[in-house]
Design a protein that fits this description.
By secondary structure, this protein is α+β, with helices and mostly antiparallel strands. It is 47% helix and 21% strand. A hairpin with a 2-residue loop joins strand 1 and strand 2. Helix 1 runs antiparallel to helix 2. The radius of gyration is 22 Å and the shape is elongated.
Length: 175
């Protein structure tokens, strides 16, 4: 059920963002008309461009809200998979890990984190194989803290480029 909701939200995000992008020129033109209609120190003679502002702002707000929902669902789905998987094989960029325990402990600690003016750098692709099936994720090493990784969940378009959480570990230092 949650997967279906996440797929629908993902679709709406990919529709809403282009609407806002396409509305940008309309907003700029109407805003310039509005502000240009005011005499020096006077009130504008044109009405406030409410429709242009709404056409620009509402899709952005929709993407932010739906994106938060998709990330929460994806994180929950990811952690549920990890909790149900006991005997796993983990490969990092195609190389099997000899000891997957530290990696799994770190991945199970995935949590949402407030942004702190950094960005992901080097990407590491993980494939987890268990009796529950295969799962692929990407980790992006943080630009400010080399032991912090951004977790991306490529199952949904939105979460393939937006983090579902972060982990802090030394398990992936050599990659």
């Amino acid at each position: 059920m949650l997967q279906a909701i996440a797929k629908i939200l993902d679709l709406f995000c990919w529709i809403a963002f282009p609407i806002s992008f396409a509305a940008t020129p309309l907003l700029v033109v109407n805003w310039m008309r509005y502000t240009g209609s005011a005499k020096l120190g006077g009130k504008p003679t044109r009405p406030f461009p409410i429709w242009s502002v709404c056409l620009f702002v509402l899709p952005i707000m929709t993407v932010v809200a739906m994106g938060s929902g998709i990330c929460a669902i994806a994180r929950s789905e990811f952690l549920s998979y990890l909790d149900s998987s006991m005997d796993v094989d983990v490969s990092v960029d195609g190389q099997n890990l000899a000891n997957s325990r530290p990696a799994m402990i770190a991945l199970r600690s995935t949590h949402a984190m407030i942004a702190h003016h950094s960005h992901p750098t080097k990407s590491i692709n993980l494939k987890i194989i268990s009796q529950s099936g295969d799962l692929s994720i990407s980790l992006g090493r943080d630009s400010g803290n080399p032991r912090e990784y951004w977790v991306f969940y490529p199952k949904y378009g939105f979460t393939s480029t937006n983090e579902i959480g972060r982990i802090t570990t030394s398990a992936f230092d050599k990659y």
